[in-house]
Amino acid sequence: MSRTPHLGPPPRRLTVEPELVRRLVADQFPQWAGLPIRPVANGGWDNWTFHLGSGMSVRMPSADEYALAVDKEHRWLPRLAPQLPLPIPVPLAKGAPDAGYPYSWSVYPWIEGAQATERDIADPIRFALDLAEFVAALQSVDPTDGPGPGLHNWYRGGTLRTYRPAVDRALTALDGHLDVALAHEIWKHSLDAPWDGKPTWFHGDIAQGNLLLDNGKLTAVIDFGTCGVGDPACDLAIAWTLLTAEGSQAYRERLAVDDATWARGRGWALWKTLATYSWCFDEPDDDDAVSARRILDGIFTEYAASHR
After folding, report:
1. Which end of the chain, N or C, is less packed with Cβ atoms under 10 Å?
2. What is the reported pTM?
3. What is the rounded distance in angstroms from the CA atom of residue 83 to the CA atom of residue 103?
4. How far apart are CA 226 and CA 46, in angstroms?
5. Helix, strand, coil content of the chain in percent (nearest 5)
6. How far is CA 156 from CA 63, 170, 234, 270, in A?
7. Mean pLDDT, consecutive 10-residue segments, the chain of 308 residues?
8. Do residues 25 and 142 share a domain?
């Protein structure tokens, strides 16, 4: 289960067992009391996720900070969904704190699909263009009254400078394990890239675990806990973390991304990957370490090629 990078160490998580979920569902939604409940494999870090019958899921925030997203999702996802070209999760019901569990929680429809991986994407350029169409549609939604950057989404959509201490810590830990001087240069270039200040909607965590495939084709985008309104550059990180070089170019061209926004997007990818690598670099065969090393190599190569 991969951790979502934050400003510092991840919050202390509550453990949620199926029996607690069963009790909460039976007490608050008796129409679903007889449905089987079982944990979702690789159900995420921010929420404990459980199957509810064959067609629904229950999402239980695992810490105070993650619980901040529940009300946001219930307010905004039903408004966003009709304006987007791919399915997204729209909550069916909101549960209340009870039985010793301190947070609001949610029941969602279960969206079928396999998490996107490089080897399972049938056509990398088509995948990139389909994703870009989704992001473009999201950015076109009226941002009025939308949630700005804050603790509810770990300040996605705000300035990258918020993450400077975390990047400094990661680079200190990684000294001797990668080209720290080049990483500093890329990071500074990202920080210096200006934003025009025009806010748009963003997802905030466009990552392979939140992109679903059917027969190799993108069919849904899930997990909007980090969504909000602000600088959309955070949704460009996928260009370095999953897309091929050709797919990355197609993604950029469809979204008409200028050089400054692209540089900020590169900074988001760099921060997330440095944070992940700093947790696992001493276990070189760990899947997260292998992936982080690959992504960092790609970031370094792409930056060098664009700054010859």
Report:
1. C
2. 0.96
3. 29
4. 10
5. 50, 15, 35
6. 18, 19, 7, 14
7. 56 94 98 97 91 98 96 98 98 98 98 97 98 99 98 97 97 98 98 97 97 98 98 98 98 98 98 97 96 98 94
8. no
What pLDDT does 200 receive? 98
Q: What is the CATH number of the domain that holds 50?
A: 3.30.200.20
Domain ranges, residue 180: 114-306
Which of 40, 75, 109 is the last residue in one of the domains? 109
Q: Is 126 helix (H, G, I), strand (E, B) or coil?
A: helix
What residue has token string 């603790």?
Answer: 151
- Predicted confidence at residue 8, as pLDDT, reads 60
Domain assignment present for residue 4? The answer is: no
Residue indicated by tokens 């400077």 = 164
How many Cα atoms within 13 Å fall on the side-chain side of residue 268?
Answer: 28
Go through the chain and tell me how many residues it has: 308
**131 with 203, same domain?**
yes
Domain boundary residue among 109, 128, 157?
109
Cβ 222 vs Cβ 88: under 8 Å: yes
